C-alpha cells in the first residue's frame, strides 16, 4: 500500500483495505472512502483522526460482456474510462451518471464509478431508465468490520438473498468499502432529439411536461430550465424519434414557440442539465430537492416568497435544483419540501453554512433508529464515519 | 418432506388457546382461524411440496391491527409469517407450527390513483393486475407482470421482488416501487419512500424489496405507473432447435434491441399451454419464441422488421405477427398460463427459477436433458429469454413414493449448474424454503452474515418468517464476526437445517 | 397436488372422480382471483383453492365435516368462475357437487336450516306449488318490513321478497308454426321461469317461428333438478333427471330433435351434465348422454341460425350481464353479445363481468348477506355504464338484479331479440324510467 500524502491511504486491493480497517481499529481512528473526490465537500470537514481511503488505485474494467449487457469493474475506475469503453460497443450506463465536479467546486477532480455508486445520484435519464440503484447487479466489498464479502451477481434478474446492492448505493461508503462491482448496461439509443418550448412560468411549463409524460410517446428526459424553457427529450431508433418528435411538436405548438434540436446539440444540452452547469459558475447555495412532480412548482414558489432563488427542474419536475443567494434557510426549504412529501439535500454551501446544517435530508425517528442499527451491523465501531448523514453511531 | 424447519417452541405450542384468544380480541372476533380442520387451507402457498399447519391465522383489515398483532406476538415470542395471495413458488409463506399466519388478503383496496404524479397507492392485498385494471381507463398500466398477475398480490410482489415477462425493458418490482408503509416486528409503523423518484438515507426500501417477509409486514405500497404504449405487437416465432432460438435471442440483444418482452418455451411447455388456450402455437417446433415490441407504430414496425430478419437468419420455421390486440394478448395468455397448464401433463411439477448468462442457454439446456434422463423425470422449459431467467418445470407424481425426492435432487442439480455457469439460484421466485439450503452454493458464511445483519437490524429476535432464505439460524447476538477457518464455522452449536 | 386416497376408496366412482379433480389442482391460486366470495371475504377458506383443501380433507379422511367446513362450502355459489380461470383444468363443479351430497348425507344441520332447505326443495321445482306459494307470499309480503333482518328471518325475508319480483303475463294469441322447417326443437319448460316470466319462452317461440324453427312439446318433463342438486339432495336431482331423459327420449324417438332449448341458463348447465350424472346407470347412461349433447342455450341455437331481419332497431344502450351458468358453466360468452349487437342494440361492457350477481339458484335465500353484497357490487358495475336496459340469460339473475337499486329494467336477451325482429316490446321495458 502506498501513502499519497501523510493522511490519505491508497489501497491497491481488498486485503489492503482490510488491513487499513484493522489499523484504524487499533488506533481508534476512522477512514473516509474517497473516489475521485468530486463530492468531498459534501462529507463535511474531516475530524483530525480521520484518514482518507483513496480508491483510485483499485481501478479498471475486469469483465465486459456486451451481449450479456453486463460490465464488471473496480470501484476506482474513472467514469470517463467506463463511458469510453461502453461507447466503443454502442452501449451506455442508462442511469446517466452525472459529473458534479464543476458544480461542487472540485474542478479537476475525476468522478469515479465508485463515487457514483456511493452517492447514488442519477442523471436526467432517471425519469425513464431508472436510478443508480436500479443498475448495480452485484459487488464485492470490505465491511466496516473488516469482513470481505460479496452480494448479488452478474445477471439482471436475481433475488438470491437480500438485495444488499441497494444498500450500498447512496451509502457514501459508510457501511462497507465497495471494491468491485457489476453494472447493468444498455444499448445506446441510435438517435436523439429534444423539443424546446418557450411558455409561461414554471407551473405552466411543468403542467405541459406532465401532459407529455402521460402520453405514450416515451419521453426519456424532461426538464424545465432556469430560463423557463421546457426541454423534452426523445431517444431511440431514428424513424421512431422523428415521428414522436413530430407529435410532441404538435402537442406544444399552441402553447408557445417550439423548436427541436437533434443529436450533438441535444446531447450537449442534456449534459448541462444533468451536471447542473447553470449553477456551476456562481457561488450561491445549491439545494437538490426531490418532490412529487405535481408539487414542485408550488414548493418553489412558496420558498421564493421568502428567499430569492433560481430553479432548474429535471425528472419532469420531480427533481429541483435550487440556487439561493446568501444564507441557506434550511428550515424553510426542508419544511416546505417535507410538507409536500419530498426531501432536500444541501449540495453546495460555504463551509460555515455546511457546519451548521445537515447535508443529507433528515429522517424521522423510526427510520433514523433503524438506519443506526443497520450502520452498527456493518460498522459497529464507526470506522467508516458518517459521510453526509447524521444518524451514525457517534452522533 | 425432506425439508427441516426450526424446531417449534413448546411454550408457544402449549399457549395456543391463549394466542388465539388474544388475536380474537385484537380483531374483534372477525378473521381468526384456529381449528385444524380449517387451517388446512393455509398449510402451503403455491409450492405444495412442503406443508405445515400454522398455529393460527389472523386476517386483519387495518395497519393498526397489524401493529397490534405484531406487538402481541413479539411479547409472547410467537413467530409470524406474512402471507399475501399465497402464490409463492418458493414456499415464502410456508407456515410454522408455532407461528401465526398474518394474511393480508383483506387489504384489498386501491387507496389513491394519482395520475398527475403517475403513481398509485394500494393496499398490499390488491392484485398485481388489479393495479393495472384501476388505471386502465386513464391510459396507464403497472409494468411488472408476473405470470400469476391475475392472483398474486402487490405486497407479495414487493416481498419477493417479482419479475414478469416485460421486465427486460421495464424492470422488476423493485424498479417500479416508490414507497411502502411497513410495520416492524415491534409494532412500529414506518414509511419508506413515497411519491418521489428517490428516497433519503440508506435505501431501506431497496432492501425491503425481495426480503421475503422477514423484515417487516408491508401494509401499503406506492408504485409508478406508465402510459400504456400506443401499440404493442408480438411476433410468434418457431425454431427447429433450442440452440437456434437461443442464438436468435443473443443476436437481437447484440443488435441493440431491447424488446418489451422476449419469452421462450420448449415443446412440452408449448403443448401444455396450447392445450389450455388453443392460441395457435406451432407444435412441430422445438422452441417457441415470443418477441414483443411496443411504442408508436414506427417503433413497432422497425423493431419487428429487425427481429424478423434476425429470426430468419437463425432458421426460424414459423413466424406470425399479432394482427390485433386480442391476438397479442392470446400469445401472452398461453405463455402466462404455462406453469399451471403443465398441470394437464402431470399431476405435480417442481418449478425452478435460476438465472444464467444468456449465452450459456444451449449448454445449460443440453446438460438439463442429460439430467432428465438420469433422473427419469420429464422437464418442460419456460424461459424469460431476454433476461436469462430459466423456469424448468420438473414433472413428477407426488403419489409415487420417492418421486418428490428425485425431483428435489434434480432441481438442486439444475440450480448448481446455473451458479456454475455464472448465474444465480433464483431470478424472481425468491429463495424461500425451496432454495434455502442451496444458498452456500453462491455465498460464503461471511456473505450470508452481512445479509443476516440486515435482518437483525429489523427483527433482532428473529420472529418474522424464520426458516426462510438462510440455511442456518443465527441468534443476532452471536452474529459478531463469523470467522471461517479452513472450512470450520465459528458457531458449530447453532442449529442448522 | 398429492392425495392420500386408499385403493379401496378409489373403487367408489364418485371418490375416484373427486380424487382426479383434486389431483389436477396445482394450488396456483389463480381461482381465488376471480372467485366472488374470496373477493368479498378475503379468506382462503372462501375461495376455490381453500375449499378444495377442505373437500380433500373431508373426502380423504371420510370425515363428517365440522360446521366450519360446511359453512365455507355452503358459501360457494357454484358460479364456476374458477372453472373458467383454472389453467390446470380442475373439475371443480363435480367436486363441489359430490361434496354437497356428502355433506347432505353425513352432516346434521340445525333444524331451522333443514326446514328452510326442505321448504325450498319442496316448493320451487314444482310450478303449481310455487305459484301457490307466490300468491301466499304476496299476501304476506307487506309484512316483510316488520321482520327483523337477522339470521334465519333474513332468509325468510329474502323468500318473501321473491314474491314481489316482477312477473310477466301470458300473452294472447297463438304463434303460427313456421312454414319452412329448418330445425325441430323442444324446450326445457322448467319450473320457476314459467311461473315468474312465462313471456320469456313465448318470446323465444316467436323468434323461432320467424326463423323457421319448429317447437314441439315434450310432455312429462319437469324441473331440471339443479335446485335440489345444489342443496346436495342427490337422489332427488337424479329422479328429476331420469324423468326428463324419459320425456325427451320419447320425442327423440318420435321424429327426432335438433336441440333441447333452455332459456334459463342455470338449468342448461344441469342438462348438459346429465350424461355425467347418470353415467353409472346402464338404463340411462346412453340416453342421458344424448340429452346432454342436444342441450343448447337459446342463444346458442339463435347464433347457429340466421337472425330474422331487424325491423325495429331501438338503438337502446344495453348492458349485458353474463349469467355465471352461461359464461362459466357452459362457456357461452360471445353468442348473446353478438346477437344483441346484430339486433341493433348498443352493447356496453361492464367491469368485473366474471363475477356472480348473487342469485345462484337459492343462494340469495340461503346466504342473503353475501348475495346482497354481490348484487350491489354488480348493480354498481352496471350503473357505471349508464344502460337503458340490462339483458341477461337467466331467470335467477333477472329476478336478483331487478331488486334493490336496479340501474335499469332487466329483461331476458331473447325478449330484446324478439322485439327487434318484430315482436312486442318486452313487458319489463315498460317499467323503464
TrEMBL record, chain A:
Family matches, as InterPro entries: FAD-bd_PCMH, FAD-bd_PCMH-like_sf, FAD-bd_PCMH_sub2, FAD-linked_Oxase-like_C, Oxid_FAD_bind_N
PANTHER family with a match to the protein in the record: D-LACTATE DEHYDROGENASE (PTHR11748), GLYCOLATE OXIDASE SUBUNIT GLCE (PTHR11748:SF103)
Lineage, broadest ranks: Bacteria, Pseudomonadati, Pseudomonadota, Gammaproteobacteria, Nevskiales
MF (Gene Ontology): catalytic activity; FAD binding
Keyword Flavoprotein: yes
Keywords associated with the record: FAD, Flavoprotein
Keyword Flavoprotein: yes
Source organism (scientific name): Panacagrimonas perspica
Protein name per Swiss-Prot or TrEMBL: Glycolate oxidase FAD binding subunit
From TrEMBL, chain B:
Domain FAD-binding PCMH-type: 50-228
Keywords recorded for this protein, A-Z: FAD, Flavoprotein, Oxidoreductase
Keyword Oxidoreductase: yes
Listed Gene3D superfamilies: 3.30.465.10, 3.30.70.2740, Vanillyl-alcohol Oxidase, Chain A, domain 4
Record-linked InterPro entries: FAD-bd_oxidored_4_C, FAD-bd_PCMH, FAD-bd_PCMH-like_sf, FAD-bd_PCMH_sub2, FAD-linked_Oxase-like_C, FAD-linked_OxidoTrans_Type4, Oxid_FAD_bind_N, Vanillyl_alc_oxidase_C-sub2
Transit peptide keyword on record: no
Cofactor needs: FAD
Recorded superkingdom: Bacteria
One Gene Ontology term of the molecular function aspect: oxidoreductase activity
A Pfam family assignment: FAD-oxidase_C
Listed name of the protein: Glycolate oxidase
TrEMBL record, chain C:
Coiled coil stretches, renumbered: none
GO molecular function, one term: glycolate dehydrogenase activity
Catalysis performed (reactions): (R)-lactate + A = pyruvate + AH2; glycolate + A = glyoxylate + AH2
UniProt keyword annotation of Nuclease present: no
Alphabetical list of InterPro entries matching this protein: 4Fe4S_Fe-S-bd, 4Fe4S_Fe_S_CS, Cys_rich_dom, Glc_ox_4Fe-4S, Helical_ferredxn
Positions of transmembrane segments: none
Cofactor: [4Fe-4S] cluster
Keyword Iron-sulfur: yes
Cofactor mode of binding and number, as noted: Binds 2 [4Fe-4S] clusters.
4Fe-4S ferredoxin-type domain location: 13-45, 66-96
Keywords: 4Fe-4S, Electron transport, Iron, Iron-sulfur, Metal-binding, Repeat, Transport
Its EC number(s): 1.1.99.14
Pfam families xref list: CCG (PF02754), Fer4_8 (PF13183)
NCBIfam families per record: PRK11274.1
Biological role stated in the UniProt entry: Component of a complex that catalyzes the oxidation of glycolate to glyoxylate.
Protein's UniProt name: Glycolate oxidase iron-sulfur subunit
Lineage: Bacteria, Pseudomonadati, Pseudomonadota, Gammaproteobacteria, Nevskiales
